[in-house]
Amino acid sequence: xxxxxxxxxxxxxxxxxxxxxxxxxxxxxxxxxxxxxxxxxxxxxxxxxxxxxxxxxxxxxxxxxxxxxxxxxxxxxxxxxxxxxxxxxxxxxxxxxxxxxxxxxxxxxxxxxxxxxxxxxxxxxxxxxxxxxxxxxxxxxxxxxxxxxxxxxxxxxxxxxxxxxxxxxxxxxxxxxxxxxxxxxxxxxxxxxxxxxxxxxxxxxxxxxxxxxxxxxxxxxxxxxxxxxxxxxxxxxxxxxxxxxxxxxxxxxxxxxxxxxxxxxxxxxxxxxxxxxxxxxxxxxxxxxxxxxxxxxxxxxxxxxxxxxxxxxxxxxxxxxxxxxxxxxxxxxxxxxxxxxxxxxxxxxxxxxxxxxxxxxxxxxxxxxxxxxxxxxxxxxxxxxxxxxxxxxxxxxxxxxxxxxxxxxxxxxxxxxxxxxxxxxxxxxxxxxxxxxxxxxxxxxxxxxxxxxxxxxxxxxxxxxxxxxxxxxxxxxxxxxxxxxxxxxxxxxxxxxxxxxxxxxxxxxxxxxxxxxxxxxxxxxxxxxxxx
Length: 532
Known about the structure:
The protein is mainly alpha-helical. It has helices at residues 110-113, 115-118, 130-138, 158-190, 216-235, 254-258, 260-272, 283-309, 316-324, 328-349, 361-375, 378-400, 404-411, 414-427, 432-463, 472-491, 495-522, 524-531, and strands spanning 37-38, 43-44, 106-109, 141-142, 148-149, 198-201, 210-213, 241-243. The protein has two domains: 37-160 and 239-281 and 352-399, no CATH class; 190-237 and 287-342 and 401-531, no CATH class.
């Protein structure tokens, strides 16, 4: 799969690993590329003008001109047919592989590229007219600096890049929307605006009774947060300017290792800026969390309905097991993601410069010339890709498979249930002590434990990612086995509920402390990276 990522300042950004330009403002004319680079700055792009009478805005294959942010791809001059050959003035012939060119530097706000469901990311420039390309180019603006650089291959579906960048940039909108929606629903319960067709059986010694309960938080908090995520690019007030189709998004699928530009851009950036920061984000990370997020929502709906609206009402464990099957597709998707990751990294370990593809022979010769100049020989470059470059990406991949922010996002549908129950307790006249015990012992404690449990789920999925059976059905059974092991781990936390059921606020505080310790243990490395 592709990768998508961004980072601040002029360091480097990871997007889909394979577009043509390297760090900095790159511009591509014909099947060539113009760019910026400076060994002191974290930008590295390349320029190569071609002698041609016919201008083609793409590289011949879909992996060309960033069809989205074409403004960042080429300047107005690039859209004009060159009537005369450049001859020996070609930057390639002059070996000016890292020449700075401010005039073609253009940027576009990241939020703009993510609007209309990532319309720009889903375009295919090789299927667009020059007028359409010019219109897209005009959506960008001249810039002398960038907050991040993007590079990607057109072989990867645009919707995956859209999802990856959207979640990475605006996941916090989901958290805020979830909290706001939960608060509004609780207030509406208190005011008697929302009906309560279900029944919640309270086991708390402070409030032992069966009370009316509603499903509205469980059903609609997720939808509100999803809408907030999709609308976030329209609401974003912070300008984060990117150069689309530039450096540092690494592809983590077999396609990545088959595209010469992908490898070249990463290696070129590292050559131009040895200490620069590569922020690498595999697309499969956000894809897996999106699937898991939806599955957790389905689980919460099934659990809440079974626990409050059926004959099994009050049987917490049975309701949990009944809804747990909704998580199976998510676990299977995570396992498949780890399989793709392994194949991709194995592809880099077996990288062979002679076998990689490039849609333009001119581009390929340009790249090989730069490689020989930078690394001395193509063999030295091959060893660099197989060794240091791959090792760097392996480390980054290992650190980014289950970040704390995404674990919080995946567990956020649980807030709907807590809004329903809190609203019911509040309307039924529960004491402040009872409400505090529920917030500490159930809401906060469950969120901390839930995030840690999702982290464990990813650890198990990675440990058992490789299929043990040839049959697809048996592979799903293997995912079911991973789910079963994970459920046993989750079940170990059930006694926590009995503590604050019986002891009220003191029991809730004790449960919260234990949950916090588990949470810190699971995300200790995340805290280390944050403070570091």
